[in-house]
Amino acid sequence: QVQLVESGGGLVQPGGSLRLSCAASGSIVRINLMGWYRQAARKQRELVAIVSDEGATNYAESVKGRVTISKDNDKNTAYLQMNSLKPEDTAVYYCYADILSGTKWLDSWGQGTQVTVSS
């Protein structure tokens, strides 16, 4: 079993910053990908950013230049630094990880953390 625990969400004014963290724990052999998706009200879940175990990154066009994803492999933790936040960034942010646990690859999700950008 594996678990993803997110932290760092909250309320921030437009133009502000937030840093999300996602810590993976449990029976982990290897983590291939870690990243963040978000789901705004009445919209589908969408990719925000993702990082591979080799450090390759991919970002949604809507956040490029404002968001940076990083990963601490020793801690099995990913971070999402979000700057210049806009009201349209308001959503529940979900951590995702592709984890090898035992002999099985698992698509793992966190419980979600609310990010609200509002004045």
Layout of strands and helices, then pairs:
Layout lengths: L1 E6 L2 E3 L5 E9 L3 E10 L6 E7 L4 E3 L7 E6 L4 E6 L8 E11 L2 E6 L3 E5 L2
Parallel strand pairs: 2-11
Antiparallel strand pairs: 1-3, 3-8, 4-5, 4-9, 5-6, 7-8, 9-10, 9-11
Features:
4-stranded antiparallel sheet, mainly beta, 7-stranded mixed sheet, 119 residues
Care to describe what's here?
- The chain is mainly β and 119 residues long.
- Helices cover 0% and strands 61% of the residues.
- It has strands at 2-7, 10-12, 18-26, 30-39, 46-52, 57-59, 67-72, 77-82, 91-101, 104-109, 113-117.
- Strands 2, 4, 5, 6, 9, 10 and 11 form a seven-stranded mixed beta sheet that branches.
- Strand 4 and strand 5 form a beta hairpin.
- It is elongated and about 45 Å long.
- The mean pLDDT is 97.
* Euclidean distance between termini CA atoms: 40 Å
Assembly state (oligomeric) = single chain
* Tally of individual helices: 0
- Mean pLDDT figure: 97
Give the proportion of residues in helices.
Answer: under 10%
As a percent range, the share of strand residues is: over 45%
Structural class: mainly beta
Total strand count, please?
A: 11
- SSE ordering: EEEEEEEEEEE
Report the major sheet: 7 strands, mixed
Short summary of the structure?
The chain has 119 residues and is an all-beta fold. It is built from no helices and 11 strands.
